[in-house]
Amino acid sequence: MKWKSLLKWRAAPPPDVAETIYEAWTGRVLSRWRATTLKPAGRLGHIARRVQVRINRIIPDQMHAVVTAVIEGVTRTLLTGVDLTTTAPVTSATLAQRDRHALEIIERYRTISAVEGGVTGAGGFWLALADFPALLVLKIKLLFDLSAVYGHDARKFEERLFILGLFQLAFSSAEHRAGVFHTLEDWDTREHPKDFTHFDWRKFQQEYRDYIDLAKLAQLIPLVGAPIGAIVNWRLLERLGETAMNGYRMRWLARLDRLHGEDPR
């Protein structure tokens, strides 16, 4: 099945196994994912960071301005937007069923993003600029759809905050990622803000831009921009989907641990 190839942490067990076995397998997956997510940046990571700083200096000012405006503009729609919430939360399904549905959705979004990245990559600088808002909308829409798959109502403000957290977890530096992870790890047992008054939009934008700039810059290269754009978009959606799945799995298992009176960590 196609969805199996999307799992970074090896293939899933057969879908007909008992739910308790599937949940135990998921716990092992999450342990490896947690270790990888919290791993500090190594030497290569620091080198990449320095390269990124240099690249930021040579990227055209038009691109910086457009990307910054688009990131804040689109993400701020989470404040009041309802158009992204198109699917009712799934209320009755096992974790295995939710995972399979999520993987099918991720596959669909990856395909759409790859086509979109290939077209804009073949169109030169200005179409490459247009790829930023298009790709950002796809990413946020994917997160809304996955929220519903795992039974969460994205109309609630705390769920939109969680979506922003997943976005940051997928596209941030190692240092920032660790702080975001610990916030999401016990999400359902902590108090949350009622609005975005104290949300650090500047940090959010910079982390995202620094993460994707290096990859997306190659999309501007003549002749090879199309295949690079397709591959980059495919991988970015894959990373976001994997991060979101594991984030919602983490909440699922933490809820079970609370029901059983156990410490999820």
Radius of gyration: 19 Å
What is the number of independent domains?
Answer: 1
Strand portion = under 5%
Low-confidence stretches: 1-7, 119-127
Question: Sheet with the most strands?
Answer: none
Overall pLDDT, averaged? 77
SSE series: HHHHHHHHHH
Structural class computed from helices and strand pairing: mainly alpha
Using DSSP, what is the number of strands? 0
CA distance, first residue to last residue: 33 Å
Note down, in words, how this protein is organized:
Helix content is 69%, strand content 0%. By secondary structure, it is mostly helical. It has one domain (17-259). 32% of the residues are buried.
Brief rundown of the structure:
The protein has 10 helices and no strands.
Topology:
Blueprint: H1 19-37, H2 43-58, H3 61-75, H4 77-80, H5 95-121, H6 125-149, H7 157-170, H8 174-185, H9 201-217, H10 225-259
